Amino acid sequence: MKKILILTAGFGEGHNAAARNLRDAIELADEDARAEVLDLFAGSYGIFNTLARKTYLGLVQYTPKLWGQFYSLLENPLLDKHLGHFPRLQEMLEKVLAETQPDCVVSTYPIYAHVIRKIVRGHPERPFPLITIVTDSITINSAWFRAPSDFFCVANDATADALRRGGVPEKQIRVLGFPVSPVFASTLMELPLPVSEEPRRVLYLINTGKKKAGKAIDRLLELDNVHLTVSVGRDAELRARIIERTRDCGGRVKVLGWTNQMPELMMSHHLVISKAGGATVQEAIAARCPMIVNQVIPGQEEGNAQLIEKFNLGAVVEKNKEIAEAVELAFAKRASLWSEWRKNLKKISRPDAALKIAELILEESQRDSPVRKPVQLFETAPARVMRPPSFPNGSGGAQMLLCDFHIHTNYSDGKLSVPEVVDFYGERGFDCICVTDHLADPKRLLGKLSELTNMTLAQGQVGEYFAVIERERQRAWRRYKMLVMTGIEFNKDGYTRKTSAHLLGIDLKAPVDPSLDIRAIIEKIHGQGGLAVASHPHIMKSEWGRNTLYLWENQEQFAPLLDAWEIANRNNIFNDIGLKRLPFIANSDFHKPKHIYSWKTLIHARKDYEAIKDCIRRNEHVAITLYRDFEGATANQKGHGSDSPAGNVHHFQDRLPLQVVR
Ligand code: ZN
Ligand code: ZN
Q1: Which ligand is in closest contact with the Cα of 406?
Q2: Residue ranges of the alpha helices (H) in 262-406?
Q3: I want to staple 203 with a disulfide (CB 3.0 to 4.6 A). Which of 107, 113, 272, 609 is the partner?
Q4: pTM (2 decimals)?
């Protein structure tokens, strides 16, 4: 197995996006390769977390802001002798390298090459190839190339020129494009020029200038044939405001919350309006979607905006009110300006960049140069792998499977995205999970309210939700041998606890209309081979929300219809379910990382979707367990343990680098 370590840092969206896309591309290109992303500047170390704990390093104490300022100082070559001087980061990286013995190290942030130079000082050669991915464009910080790497991968020739001017030998420079998601390469579609009355599809990503966004949208809608898709990210209030403001626009406006489908969105629109974020600009180029930049953060984003202007790929406007003018101009005279932008984009677009870079990395990983590894620089220590106990294979490949069937993501009110949830559970050795975001009944008043506040999956995004989980299901299997099911938690909230019910549909193949009555929903779930499970059916202690007793109070009616009842939900346990001998499962009702320390289901079965569901239906070989790892021992005791190594877990929860992950 080839082991590839990818080092990143979550400052600016470009570095992390590049790192994750490369990881996915490497594992797509070679089933026998394993790539891990590590951010030594964030509090989140993923599978390296145990290691971080062991070495007891508090790198999180450096604030991103400080590092941001630091980044601009890096330009000064006089600082070089200090650049590699981060004793704690160096210590951590040395341990990671010793423990993982990577075949290749990839860096998407300039500091690491300097630290590595320091680590290998005094040895004739680095025991692994180092590949630096320069995520900035055109105006790049010289810190990127002042420390040695075997290769420098850049997005375009203009950036390559900057390296050449800086004295980097030609043979070390590779112009392969910015590593956008490999999805761009696999599904590249080209939206043709809109003719006559056809809609001009415009994607508006609002991340800044929120106050004026409403006015900009009004102006855009004054233009003929413009159809808008507006993405507001996590801002629920803004989303509600824009839905309200565009209520009368007759289907010309679609408002999205958080989305994991940026490649598909960009490829299905004629124009994208956004600030000049590194990843966004590169995604627009990969999708050949001309761009209107409406904000540029001085320093870090200037190069991105220059890229748009220099290659004539779109327009950069100064104020929000100029957006509509720019769009009008683009489509005027049979969209002549737009066509020119598109033509220029085609010339420099490299949607398969991540795969091309992955090829280079994989090639370097297996290079058995005689001078490689002449020195045993690092002592070898076997990595500790934490797995749930597995039972001997007595019954046709059956094993004890650790499962969690009730998990929320940021498609409703959870904190992590679907890919983050998959990595979070995969890294902890889970065997089967089901993602179950809330879907409220639009006919009930509370359903109407909650949709506006982003607490539930938006009707317009249910299709996307199914598609993204399907994509992640395949990745989870490739990477973790973990099963992932698609589910929905149907919220039927009434005004009292006796009229409220939450119903889990587990392992669904297609959306189910949430406005149907509960019996009809159960029928639809069964029609798809899924499980219908009563969620938190009994009195519980929770931070908020009300009890949902409808199914329990009407159990004569519902027990014959339901496949199981939650006997435990997070920290609550419902004795009555067990006493009645009802089929049961136990779930986290996961919304954020600390919820992992809660009740779970163990199933003794083959690792197979049907086998697992069968055990639950028949109420056989099912057990529950309270999940802890050694971080979890103190995780729920706020105020305690903060001076012990486990105290770090709070940073870990609070500081997951969410903004950069799509
Ligand atoms: Zn619920
Ligand atoms: Zn829930």
Answers
A1: 2
A2: 262-267, 278-287, 302-310, 322-348, 353-365
A3: 272
A4: 0.71
Tell me which ligand sits closest to the C-alpha of residue 493. 1
Give yes or no: residues 156 and 275 share one domain. no
- For residue 231, the CA-to-ligand 2 centroid distance in Å is 25
pLDDT for position 69? 52
Tally of domains in the chain: 3
Q: Which residue type sits at 83?
A: L
SS3 state at 548: coil
Å from CA of 543 to ligand 1 middle: 13
Residue 137: domain span:
3-182+354-367
Statement to judge: residues 170 and 319 lie in one domain: no
Q: Would residue 380 count as lying in a domain? A: no
Tell me how far the alpha carbon of residue 443 lies from the centroid of ligand 1, in angstroms: 18
Sheet of strand 130-133: strand arrangement: 33-39, 2-8, 104-107, 130-133, 151-154, 173-175
Tell how far the Cα of 435 is from the centroid of ligand 2, in angstroms.
Answer: 10
The pocket of ion ligand 2, defined by CB under 5 A, consists of 489, 589
Q: 543-579: per-residue pLDDT in tens?
A: 556 788 899 999 999 999 999 999 999 999 999 999 9
How much distance in Å is there from the Cα of 504 to the middle of ligand 1? 8
Low-confidence ranges of the chain (pLDDT < 50): 44-47, 49-68, 369-394, 633-662
Q: What distance in angstroms lies between residue 456's CA and the mean position of ligand 1's atoms?
A: 11
Domain assignment present for residue 382? The answer is: no
Ligand 2 centre distance from Cα of residue 408 (Å): 7
Give CA–CA dist 594/54, Å, rounded.
Answer: 20
pLDDT of amino acid 122: 74
210 and 175 in a common domain:
no
Which CATH number belongs to the domain containing residue 579 in this structure?
3.20.20.140
pLDDT at 533: 97
Q: Ligand 1 center to residue 274 CA distance, Å? A: 35
Q: How far is CA 6 from CA 9, 102, 350, 374, 383, in A?
A: 10, 10, 21, 23, 17
CB atoms < 10 A from the CB of 160, how many? 19
End-to-end CA distance of the chain: 28
Residues 287 and 435 in one domain: no
Position 73 scores a pLDDT of 59
CATH value at residue 55? 3.40.50
| 414 CA from centroid of ligand 2 (Å) | 9
CATH code, domain carrying 266:
3.40.50.2000
Distance 646 CA to ligand 1 centre (A): 30
**Tens digit of pLDDT for each residue in 42-62?**
654 444 544 444 443 333 333
